[in-house]
Amino acid sequence: MRTDSASATFLQHTGRVAGATLRMDPERIRSEGPPADQGARMPSDVDQSAAGVPEAGGRSGDVARRLVAFYVILAAISVAVVIVVIAEGRNEKAQPVIAGGYDASAANPCLGSVPPPASGAPLPATAPTQARPAGPSFNLLQSGQFVNATNNQATLSGQLRLGTHPIAGGARRLTGTIDCVSGGKHLALDAVAVSGAKTSLSGTLGGVPFV
What we know:
Elements: H1 5-22, H2 26-32, H3 56-91, E1 100-103, E2 137-143, E3 146-150, E4 157-162, E5 172-179, E6 186-194, E7 200-205, E8 208-210
């Protein structure tokens, strides 16, 4: 293939230019150093605190402070509750004791029948005379202001409440409902209970007076 002189000259000139462009000068590279972008920091190397990301140590510290504050508040509330309970209990007084066995002074069908005379050997002449009860016997069981009525045969029951405020003579109101021994009949009790050496109970049962 023929090539004229102009074409040859152009190729030679192009080759020189290309050779000059591709030729690298080692001394210049050493003096100028690496390109500026080679020393740039990658995004992963950016300081997390500068980017606004909280460190793990800071988060754990905040949680610890919140826990301490919570327990301090809880302890303060517990102490306040204990103080209030003690202060209230200091003003409370024990309920008078009215528990024991009672004998109605007259017959009362709701409370039961009059118990028969005690059987057995007669008492000696020197023994005090035992009066026969004129009415049925019953028992009161007490837990504070709550009182239950019953009898030895377990045929009588009742849920009563003793008043917390004393009335005349230091007596207390005793109110509630008595479930009669006959069953199916419930009568309201409104009585006054006196505690002490001579405990007594008087009032009405179903509107009928009893002592």
